[in-house]
Amino acid sequence: MTPVDLLPWATAVMAAGVALSLGLQGRQLRRALDTARGELRDAARIRSALDATSVPVRIADVDGTVVYVNQALAQVLQRDEAAFRREQPAFSADNVVGRSIGYFYADPEGAVSRLKSLRTRACTELVLGGRRYEVITTPILDAEGHNQGTVGQWLDVEHTRRAEAGVQGAVAAAVDGDLTVRVETRSLSGFHQVIGEQLNRLLASFGDTVAAFDTATSALALNSAQVSQTSQSLAHSASQQAASVEETTASLQEMNASVKGNADN
């Protein structure tokens, strides 16, 4: 059999090999595509969950660039945009994604450096847009422990801190004897407003009780003084009457002696 005779066989074998290779590659490609689709679905579910949560959340990459903000944080940024601009005149709530997270810190480079080296969850309190936030930052680590970015949660604690300051001020004043100080509740809401109002009612009730006690004590002191004065007057009158009785007795004794003397004569 000549090489020319073998050519069809060789071609068939090569075609079968190519088909087998393409089939294997196709199956691998389909598996890769299925995996990628699954990862995309997982990412979409995670994004939907983050958008649905009421806690403001942002995600930044390892270089500190913001790659995502959820709807709650977007609403906060829109609400406080004017306040942010007082601190950062160029601030725009619509342009946060794509900018450095250091934009929100007094020391941008230092903040990004700290986030890059973060290995465990960190909690700090920042004043952002004129409000106080408890910022919980969690590093995103790969399987080898390398930092791939960070997730930050902004918990608005402005009402909590105002309530704490108001309660502490009212209690400290009460300890010092001033029961007129009240918690300012107009700027509070929810649980903190309820606590402030209840404390105010408690202080008012206790203040009324103390005032009533002071009034009763004053009246008792006045009555006691009047009784004491009356007792002194009665004692003085009794003393005068006793002296008068003694004088009368002495006069009678003198008269009796005089009568007796006259009788003897």
Automatic annotation (TrEMBL):
GO terms for cellular component: plasma membrane. GO terms for molecular function: transmembrane signaling receptor activity. One of its GO terms (biological process) is chemotaxis. Keywords: Chemotaxis. Residues 42-77 form the PAS domain. It comes from the Bacteria. The keyword Acetylation does not apply. InterPro entries: MCP_chemotaxis, PAS, PAS-like_dom_sf. Belongs to the methyl-accepting chemotaxis (MCP) protein family. This is PAS domain-containing protein. The lineage of its organism: Bacteria, Pseudomonadati, Pseudomonadota, Betaproteobacteria, Burkholderiales.
